[in-house]
Amino acid sequence: MNDFEFTTSLIIQISSITLATLGVVFGLLKSKLEAVLLGAVFGLSLLFGHLHLASLLKTLNKMIPGFSGVIDQLYGIDHALVVTWGSFADWSKFVLAAIAVWVMFIAFRMIGDGSNVIRGAKLLSYEQMIKQLKSLGKPKIPLLIGQYFIPSKLESRSLALIGEPGTGKTQIILRLILSYFKRGEVLFCVDVGGDIYRKVGSSKDLIIAPTFEKSEQWSPFSEIHNLPDCKALASMMIDKGKGESAAWDQKAIDYTSDLLEHCLRRQLITNRDLIYFVRLATRKELEEVFEGTSSMRLFEDGSEKMLSNIQAIVSQKLSFLDLFDPDVGKDVFSFKQWARTRDQNLWLINDESSQEITLPLRRVGISLVIRESLDLGENRSRRINVVLDELPANGRIATLQNAMAQGRKYGLNFQLGFQSLALMYSTYSKDETHAILGSAGHTVVLRTPDAETAEYYSRTIGDSITEREQVSVSKPNNGTTKQRVRDTQRAVMPTEIQSLKDLNGFIKFSGIEWAKIKIPLVKTENKNELTPKHLFGNFDNKSNKIVTPQKFNQCLDEI
């Protein structure tokens, strides 16, 4: 066998390939697209050289008088380089391809990325975003959002998801939940409709879904350990409204708190006991219950209508207890206990028909988990993942604003989904909404038809200062004048947000600029069944009929 020989032709070819490869690698540092284009230029140049370079060299020799001198110099270096026009083309096509790659590379540098943004907001390319994310640490099992991952240093930040139904919010949530499960982390998910649980839940999970089979039982008394808990729980079950209704709600909160305290002192600690006093107790019995409390004023002469109105509010807000076993009390599931142990995933599920009646239950569950988590003390290594899709549908969570701002020190991590600012404003005040969204470290904006929401996030993404050349022609001598003009414009226009395609949007990680995002579909089939159960009232000791509270809409002045 003959020894392999490095000829001059082979050395030139290897050197040319090396130079071209360096150009492609440098292009990859800028963007994957640029690297692909440079690689394509190299390949096409080789193909052109293989097909046409020999004849082209022969033509150049005839047209350019000094070209033969170049051939003579190459012959002097190594005659094998130019024995024939074919041998000349065999190695020179690699030189041509390498030169083409570097010409394109320099052209890309001169042209830039096609953007004339000189200052302000600018969308990052995929490669730029990945580079910044990697600089903050990539975990072994990453939390995935679209084609990106949440860096290790930013995993404690919460996420806000904005978009109308069908745009990809649920797909993002599903992928995050699957990432939690791979890590062995647990979560608390408020699942409106139960669609997420059906796809990724487990038979070992805890479910609070009173209109479905296999739901855990619950009672307010499982959350009460001292008298202050009564006041806190009452304010969670009965949310204080705005305007004139706030006065009624406050009286109803006080009434419920006093009632819970009485039940606790007398050890009347089942759902049946509580509902009896809410709906069935006589006036004389209630006067004994509320003696010595602030609610006793409701039993004074002339306050009959006010008392009836307050009782109607309390009965309506606590009507979700009809969905649980009336004879359970302290020894059943507790949201507070779950927040301390977190040994199983917890799902709080309602169907469409029970959405309104279970609203106080969802508000209580979320509030208790938040409150108990904050009481655990600071621990940044703790992970309490809370998924709240369709956030406004869960009512106003009074502790959410503070939890979003301070929660990561205690291990709380939220994923909040909503459709528009209008829905958020219907539940939270404008200032509260902006404070909650401002505390979310990561944000994904998907399509939303709401003009106000699109404008808000267009403004949030920011303005760009661009520079362009303006040429003006002066008469009568037709002289031209050139000047650089700077304009300020939105990096993303509101109409762009309103016209996004499904599974496409914009993303921002904490401390990093915005970028485009494309969301892959999570291919999961329903693996869990939620079987509706038949509910029968059983609170009345004398009959099986549930007492339906009467609603009053009188103002305080009328009473």
Distance between the termini: 112 Å
Low-confidence regions: 541-559
Mean pLDDT equals 89
CATH architecture of the largest domain: 3-Layer(aba) Sandwich
Shape, principal axes of CA atoms:
elongated
How many domain regions?
3
In terms of DSSP E residues, the strand content is 5-15%
Work out the radius of gyration.
35 Å
According to CATH, the fold-level topology of the largest domain is Rossmann fold
The total count of strands amounts to 14
**SS class:** alpha/beta
The fourth-level CATH homologous superfamily of the largest domain is P-loop containing nucleotide triphosphate hydrolases
How would you characterize the overall build of this protein?
The chain has 559 residues and is of the alpha/beta class. Strand 13 (504-508) and strand 14 form a beta hairpin. The longest helix has 32 residues, at 32-63. The chain is elongated and about 120 Å long. It is 45% helix and 14% strand. It has three domains: 8-114, no CATH class; 126-216 and 333-518, 3-Layer(aba) Sandwich (Rossmann fold), CATH 3.40.50; 220-323 and 535-558, Magnesium chelatase subunit I, C-Terminal domain (Helicase, Ruva Protein, domain 3), CATH 1.10.8. The strands form three sheets. The protein has a nine-stranded mixed β-sheet with strand order 6-7-5-8-9-4-10-13-14, with helices on both faces. A three-stranded antiparallel β-sheet has the order 1-11-12. It has a two-stranded antiparallel ribbon with strand order 2-3. The model is unreliable at 541-559 (pLDDT under 50).
